[in-house]
Amino acid sequence: MPGFELFGPEEKQEVADVMENGFTFRYNFDHMRNDRWKTREMEQLLCEKMNAKHAHLVSSGTAALQTAMAAAGIGAGDEVIVPPFTFVASVEAVFMAGAIPIFAEIDETLCLSPEGIEAAITPRTKAINLVHMCGSMAKMDEIKAVCKKHNLIILEDACQAIGATYKGQALGTIGDVGCYSFDSVKTITCGEGGAIITNNSDIYENAHMFSDHGHDHVGNDRGAEGHPNMGLNFRISEMNSAMGLAQLRKLDKIIDIQRTNKKTIKDAMADITEVSFREIPDEAGDSAGFLTFFMPTEARTIEINKKLAENGVDGCFYWYINNWHYLKNWKHIQELKSPAALPITLIEDRPDYTKVQTPQSDAIMSRTISMLIKLSWTEEEIAQRIANIKRAFA
Ligand SMILES: *Cc1c(COP(=O)(O)O)cnc(C)c1O
Question: For domain 3-250, which architecture applies?
Answer without folding.
Answer: 3-Layer(aba) Sandwich (3.40)
